[in-house]
Design a protein that fits this description.
mainly beta; about 140 residues; Lipocalin; globular
Length: about 140
């Protein structure tokens, strides 16, 4: 009996808060908006809202395509590609594959792709900061 209770507790714990629940991956389109930007200088607080260098968002569609748009000043740039959610050794990520190399890609490689880590609090965190790019945090707003 003790083994049955222990097994039920373990299974319940492991399935109680999955990334899919946070992600709600069956609902599209999904809009992820840049909410916080930080630099690589210690003790400098992150900027938010209109204080950020640019405004940015991802729109994810049910056919696994996306649009990324960035507004800087009065100039809006857009790029498109495909996406998938992948599981790596340290968690779940949104993997974005662009149709071509462009200035909107924020990564540490020369590939036309980005990885954003999904957190349990319904946010995506860019990986660009690992190589001195800005720290970027996105929140799902739709």
């Amino acid at each position: 009996m003790k083994n049955l209770i222990f097994a039920s507790t373990i299974i319940g714990t492991l399935t109680s808060c999955s990334y899919d629940e946070v992600l709600d991956s069956e609902q599209y389109p999904q809009k992820w908006k840049l909410i916080e930007m930080s630099g690589n200088i210690a003790n400098v607080p992150p900027s938010t809202g209109s204080d950020m260098t640019w405004q940015e968002e991802y729109l994810l569609y049910s056919d696994n395509t996306f649009i990324k748009s960035r507004e800087r000043g009065n100039v809006v740039m857009e790029e498109i590609g495909t996406f998938d959610f992948v599981i790596l050794s340290d968690g779940k990520y949104l993997e974005l594959i662009y149709e071509s190399d462009n200035d909107l890609i924020g990564n540490c490689t020369s590939k036309a792709e980005e990885l954003l880590k999904l957190s349990s609090d319904n946010k995506l965190t860019g990986t660009w900061q690992a190589c001195d790019g800005p720290g970027l945090v996105y929140k799902r707003i739709e």
